[in-house]
Amino acid sequence: MPEVDLLQAVNMALTKAMETDDRVIVLGEDVGVDGGVFRATNGLIERFGAERVRDTPLSEAGITGLSVGLAAQDFRPVLEIQFMGFIYPAIDQIINHASRLRNRTRGRLTCPMVLRAPFGGGIHAPEHHSESTEAMFAHIPGLRVVIPSSPKRAYGLLLAAIENPDPVVFLEPKRIYHVQKENVEDDGKALPLDRCFVLREGSDITLITWGAMIVETLAGADQLAEDGVSAEVIDVATLTPLDTDTIFSSVEKTGRCVIVHEAARTGGFGGEIAARLAEDGLLSLLAPVKRVTGYDTVIPMPRLEHHYMPSLDRILTAAREVLEYS
Amino acid sequence: MPEVDLLQAVNMALTKAMETDDRVIVLGEDVGVDGGVFRATNGLIERFGAERVRDTPLSEAGITGLSVGLAAQDFRPVLEIQFMGFIYPAIDQIINHASRLRNRTRGRLTCPMVLRAPFGGGIHAPEHHSESTEAMFAHIPGLRVVIPSSPKRAYGLLLAAIENPDPVVFLEPKRIYHVQKENVEDDGKALPLDRCFVLREGSDITLITWGAMIVETLAGADQLAEDGVSAEVIDVATLTPLDTDTIFSSVEKTGRCVIVHEAARTGGFGGEIAARLAEDGLLSLLAPVKRVTGYDTVIPMPRLEHHYMPSLDRILTAAREVLEYS
Amino acid sequence: MTDHRSLHNLEIGFTGILGADGKPIGELPEFASNHKQLIALYRAMVLTRRLDEQAVALQRTGRLGTYASSLGQEAVGVGVAAAMNNNDVLLPSFREQGAQLVRGVTMVEILRYWGGDERGSCFEGPKEDFPAAIPVGSQFPHATGVALAMKLRNEARAAVVVGGDGSTSKGDFYEALNLAGVWQLPVVFVISNNQWAISVSRKKQTAAKTLAQKALAVGIAGEQVDGNDVIAVRFVVERALERARAGQGPSLIEALTYRLSDHTTADDATRYRPDEEVSARWKKEPVSRLRTYLTDLGAWTGKDEETLLNESTVQVEEAVTAYLATPLPQAGEMFDHLFESLPSDLENQRKQVEELSREKTDA
Amino acid sequence: MTDHRSLHNLEIGFTGILGADGKPIGELPEFASNHKQLIALYRAMVLTRRLDEQAVALQRTGRLGTYASSLGQEAVGVGVAAAMNNNDVLLPSFREQGAQLVRGVTMVEILRYWGGDERGSCFEGPKEDFPAAIPVGSQFPHATGVALAMKLRNEARAAVVVGGDGSTSKGDFYEALNLAGVWQLPVVFVISNNQWAISVSRKKQTAAKTLAQKALAVGIAGEQVDGNDVIAVRFVVERALERARAGQGPSLIEALTYRLSDHTTADDATRYRPDEEVSARWKKEPVSRLRTYLTDLGAWTGKDEETLLNESTVQVEEAVTAYLATPLPQAGEMFDHLFESLPSDLENQRKQVEELSREKTDA
Ligand SMILES: Cc1ncc(C[n+]2csc(CCOP(=O)(O)OP(=O)(O)O)c2C)c(N)n1
Ligand SMILES: Cc1ncc(C[n+]2csc(CCOP(=O)(O)OP(=O)(O)O)c2C)c(N)n1
Ligand SMILES: [Mg+2]
Ligand SMILES: [Mg+2]
Q1: Which of the ends of chain B has fewer CB neighbours closer than 10 A, N or C?
Q2: Domains and CATH numbers, chain B
């Protein structure tokens, strides 16, 4: 069983999917000979050939629309957008077509495509390379937004996304491409796309997050444990459709909740979760919900970036505030 | 003082702005000779000429980027996107440039542009003509999202948006282009862009909404009054930056809150407001917050559209549920 | 040294076969010697026109939504679809009723679609054809994907995508054209240049003299055809399709036509174009042109015409009746095809919309 | 009738003045008789190369972020900027340090930008020039807006926008080109065709034989120039700018060059292109070509070269020192230029980020 990091797990899942189903086509800028700028598609072209692993022109709108056509013809395109900052020209095709082709044609045509993109900051990248705009996609009906936060979940969730008969935006937290290694069995087994993952059970407070912030959140849970506080940690993983059950049963138990994400606060997906709690979980809440998020400004370039990223300290402060209520 | 509807008020504001400031340039598809498909720009080309009122090629991404360049050169472009369903090719320019040009250049270049688009359903329009995706824009730092819901506010807020030194997405609720007439003084006075409007004061429950849903929400307040319930009605008007003060002081008073919007529920801007209440207003809440929204599906074509739109009934049901808590 | 290297293939061909007066001005293609085939084209154009007329009337009386008539442009849709094999795939704009009819989309389906019912895009006939594309130009990239699928499967099939003159200003058009060129995909791009994009004239859309020359930007074949000459349209599209299916790459065809109607039933074209322009164009419209030719040939009589008009009227009326009798969809259906199966997170919403609609019905 | 109407202006010119060996192969433009001007071009290219070298070194030692060197392409940036008037506006891609330097952006600003500091885009010099465009091709539409502003004000100025071969596949490029054409805007589009877009070769980008011919799609002038010949670049851009300023419309210029470096410091070009290709291209690089010409003319000596190299090194080192001494920005600055004045909704956030950063500093 290979010990792999998140990026390698993505590569493993792509390899497995291409092996298992020859309708899987990998495409995007530099995904071929170069193996992708992060190397997520490394080795695929050698193994599966240039017909199935396609370097595309620099044309995000075009290749997304092309993927819709391919998917409608029963292929399984897995499209890489190089950085999330370059995903925006693709939004028109995603919202106006990919996410509603099945609905528009009452099931006659479908769109089983996956759009992969690395996202998030904290790697000292140039301008426009550190976006976290998952909330924009999570507002699109007919679309699934999936974000892995460990090698195992990257493998299982990507396989699930590719097998899924509907479109999935699969966002990879590039800051943690290499932070953790796990033994990931290459068994082709998909993980469920309708479940949050409880990474740690606890009884005093629920910490909810996704993507790279899982690292600081788990560290927060560790620190809280030292204070004698038992924190439950939930990795949302599939933002939409949202598994409210897991979230609600946790908050019913703990009565307290902190939501952590890197994206800007206003309109971020943390708001949706907090709103659901305010609507249907209010009576379980012993304290206000807190969001620890990126600020409502453009994520700064590297010189100020670390001030922007939600830190362990901010998570702890929020958790402690919430714990003070009785 | 002319009695005008919301659409005419938009036209009045555009005329006034062009009169007052010759840096104001109106552009978009069919805004010239045709006066816009809804006639919002009617008469402008006759009055101000084809240099300042420009029919553009069918090119949403291009004309949005062009407007960024114009704005950086100290013009005041007011760009019409014909329907919100066609705004998506413009998102790349809005998020990657318009909203951050000032920040990227530390104030050297700025982007005082307004992007106007009619939005929302309920007018039996064809596919892709009934979108309400204001939440996607409200998540973009550096951008203002403004939505008028009466002729007076359309006039004053549009003037404010045009005068504003930063980019504004100005969304016009086309379902109520013609439902209400008001005497609007053509005095060139802008309304504030940082305030919610309390349309009706009340003490028992706060109803928060924006755009066309103002109609059903006010009707809801009327009905509640008949039951002896005093409802406060807030028109958010400027979604971002959000005037939380007005919202909080209302909910402090009433202890109850229903948020109404037409957009899909998950990731809609109602979630942000509910989240803020869950965070910083929880202790004022006597009951769960409720959202009455569009469903998490593609807004249906006309045959099913009326089932999708949040109705007076749904608003009343939610309000009554909230009022039951004691 | 300033050296003007002249490039290859920088000519744009133009094909016209019947003149505006119905007299041949060019060599007739082989299929034209078979009068039955010409009559089939004629019948399809007449039926399209009848359907358009009736649809506009339905809209005017509140029984249909906004409608985009193809009046004057029937030869483009009919010619394009007639050139296609059944197993090719059509990706139309929103003004290609003629093409859809020939492809086997039923009139009832077309009316349902414009009547505001998603079921109208669930074609019984051409199952792989795309529904009408409302966001202008967004269909072009889909066609490259469909064509790539065919190529990957080594099939002798092709995709045909239709857009308007206005659509050629969109990045989608260009990006798709470029993808088709670089991967030599089996796709034919047809531009129905009806001279107007709502109120924006062809000249205000681009400084290019022809839209066909946009092919040069991506190194593929481009040509013009008289879009009011159904024989010419079918001929050039057939030729382009043969090339595409044989692996000889994509083409761009600009069909020169004219929109004789308003943009849609929501439009008033007199606001932006002079009556004289329109009346001049009526003299070149496609239906009477082919009728004259067939009549001159002796292949079509006044009697045939009368029969056809009656038949078309009956056919359209039957379709209208069936359309008007369509049972309303159930409210819950708005969730039924969002995903393959409804995520549990949305079950409550589906339940709510169903309950509320039951209450309404009961009330 | 199939009538091949051949269209006008469907030729693409190519301009080269100095051959790869530094010998003139074409007529020299007037400015070239002024050796001072040629020396200025030469000095700017050498300085650019020195800066690039130093920037890559800084990145390798962790003192700069990812950096895109212009090694081998200096003639494009320098030639373009030298052709511009001060009051023209430059909209560069992310690889135009040469152009920026000539425009008056300081080396310290350039280093700050690539060092991850927004203040690097707050140029003291060319105040209207745009910052580097990272989303490929997104700068083209801005240039049309800048040009429209100039046109509306009746100024004899023009915008110059630079992008790579890869950028020509984006809809943004095409839509901007089309807008410029239809409105006859004073803008010059320069494509620095360095044959690669990261690992994707020029051939895989488009089937068009030249990128210059993309101008034909929108009815504007298009031409090629030897992009390793700074004299030729300056000459053709100057000519295009004169036309633009005189109201004679936009142009597209494809400058043929080659990226001798990796795509950026994050790239390893040996993964996708053979060493032989690169070494062959070294023989055509722009700096030694002009040096040979100047030397042959007797306008440049070994001593001059030595002095220049020393001077450039000193200049760059001074800039590096100033860059490294740049005080860090304050955390709160991330809010200071988001809006003209900070909305009250964000005051708390600004306060929080400031407090937390103070705590960090204190700790
Ligand atoms: C992306 C987009 N922008 C705007 C519109 C609104 N609109 C509908 S049709 C049309 C004009 C289309 O012109 P053309 O492509 O020439 O097609 P035609 O209507 O003439 O058939 C416009 C602007 C749209 N549907 N999609
Ligand atoms: C819209 C967009 N897509 C992808 C990228 C990632 N990327 C950065 S540079 C580059 C290649 C650009 O090639 P070209 O336009 O030829 O410019 P060059 O790098 O050769 O100067 C890519 C794909 C980007 N920055 N923007
Ligand atoms: Mg048209
Ligand atoms: Mg390049």
Answers
A1: C
A2: 3-183 (3.40.50.970), 197-324 (3.40.50.920)
